[in-house]
Amino acid sequence: MExxxxxxxxxxxxxxxxxxxxxxxxxxxxxxxxxxxxxxVALLIPFTFHMDPAQGLMLLGAAYTATVAGGAVSAIxxxxxxxxxxxxxxxxxxxxxRKGEGAKxxxxxxxxSFIGGxxxxxxxxxxxxxxxxxALSFGPSHLFWIAILGVTIIGSLDSKSVVKGLLAGCIxxxxxxxxxxxxxxxxxxxxxxxxxxGVHIIAALIGLFAIPQVIEMLEGGRHKRTxxxxxxxxxxxxxxxxxxxxHPRALTIGGIVGVIIGLIPGAGGQIAGLVSYDQARxxxxxxxxxxxxxxxxxxxxxxxxxxxxxxxxxxxLTLSVPGSPTAAVLLGGLLIHGIFPGPNLFVQHPDVxxxxxxxxxxxxxxxxxxxxxxxxxxxxxxxxxxxxxxSGILVLAVFGAYSVQNSQSDVVVMLALxxxxxxxxQYGFSPAPLVLGVxxxxxxxxxxxxxxxxxxxxxGMFSYFCLGTMxxxxxxxxxxxxxxxxxxxxxxxxxxxxxEIAT
Amino acid sequence: xSENVAGRLQQTIAAAIILALGLWVAFVSFSVSxxxxxxxxxxxxxxxxxxxxxxxxxxxxxxxRTGAGMSLHQLRMIAPAIALMLAYVLIAIxxxxxYTAATLAFFTLYTLFDPxxxxxxxxxxxxxxxxxxxxxxxxxVFAMGLRVQTPRGLFI
Lengths: 503, 156
What we know:
Largest sheet of chain B: none
Number of strands of chain A: 2
Number of helices of chain B: 5
Distance between the termini of chain A: 58 Å
Distance between the termini of chain B: 51 Å
Number of domains of chain B: 2
Radius of gyration of chain A: 22 Å
Helix content of chain B: over 70%
Strand content of chain B: under 5%
Largest interface: A-B, 67 and 67 residues
Shape of chain A: globular
Helix content of chain A: over 70%
Number of domains of chain A: 1
Structural class of chain B: mainly alpha
Oligomer: heterodimer
Order of helices and strands of chain A: HHHHHHEEHHHHHHHHHHHHHHH
């Protein structure tokens, strides 16, 4: 129950103001089609430099929670999911809105998001210290394999092609090596004056996540985005509370599915929402009504995609393996404040760790309250033209990258990485493994070098890095994550081929 | 050239470029006199070359189905945006100053991709108002709030 002692820093005036700002900003950003939660959190990181680490993380955590929930606004009102996590919400949410139940659908969404979110954070609170305690015994070889595991998991699960996912991870690891070697100060791979300081994590995060989205928004040229906005009629919040609580099956399925999928690194909110929706339909006596505006579908999907948020942070905080692209961005946010998540986090910085986790719990309440009352405003935000959004994000990205170290080189590197990533995306590469390579590269290298020194003084490299129970478990997980994804890719290809034959 | 063949060719070229990058990283990592700082890059370069070679073989055989590649139409659409971004960061910021360059970049990008008519004066007024409003917000947040010192060019 240690977390109860750390609620104080969350309830200060400045922390509450930050949480409110993060929640409102996150809801509006999440509601805007084309802005992913990952990009929103990446763009917010520079704003946290001047805050103390706990408050900086509170802002990022609140924004993360709220963007996932806010994505439901455009999913329900426009049938355009604000984030991949809201795809399942659009199935019944939009149908409800077309029947004149838009306000009801939005209320159900925020209430069930709150229930799922609280459940997820409770799992985070009770599971994290147990895993962290166990992980305290890890040595350099284990930490090396954990860093590699982080890259292979995101590389193989977040991409449609395992080879390209892993290749992107390797490119990220190489980018992290650019600059001066941290042990001997030797110059490595510096082929431009802008690379002399290396590639800063935040410049990489902003460039890789924000710039490709800016270019994608402009792909349509001067094309006018037309929306079929549905009319939102007022609906009683208390009635919606009753309706949500009257669907315990959907809440339970959403909660369980969200927690389990959140704990699996790389799976993400999109899968949580879709699996939960599918299971709720399977167990519902009204399964044939799903897709035509069934409240149960919205509740199941939204409970799951928010229940996933807390557990997705468990591997990040205990093992420094981010479970999702947004968790990878949060890892970057932690590192720039000098906080290294992992086994020692709860020993060296318990105040920061617990204040962050507790703020996620408080953030769920704020998300529901603001969500219920500013959903109407968010409905206007979704209509901002892509030209304004793209121009605004570009300028924000440039200022954000510059403000990290007051360096123009960071801006140049950010833009170069962003444009490069846009082209790589067209060929099936995903930014998440690349980012993770950039973040985990220095961690993997320092543990590799340390482990090598220990190994040379002891039983040798093979014995130190490849033998021992924990090394074998971690190596097995690395291999398993790759093989599982290869098997999934082959199965999907077969299904595609069958589909092509059938058509 | 059929769409399939063009797609396969594009995927093959992309994989070949990454293979070339991997080979360069491997060459640099393995040809240094003091290998100590390059031990980890050596590991990465081996993995990179292996995976890129696999991607190249798969692309050449047409087995690579992820990513639609680029079309000429798509390139034509995004070329002005990319050119403007490069001009903004590489030329405008050092010569004009951070805020002036940002104002010009925002306004130009917005105007280039705004579907509203260029003929109506009211459209231009809206564009100017949005640009000024957004840049005022950026100035308040970064210059006054976060106290970020930006280098000056001809202007601020």
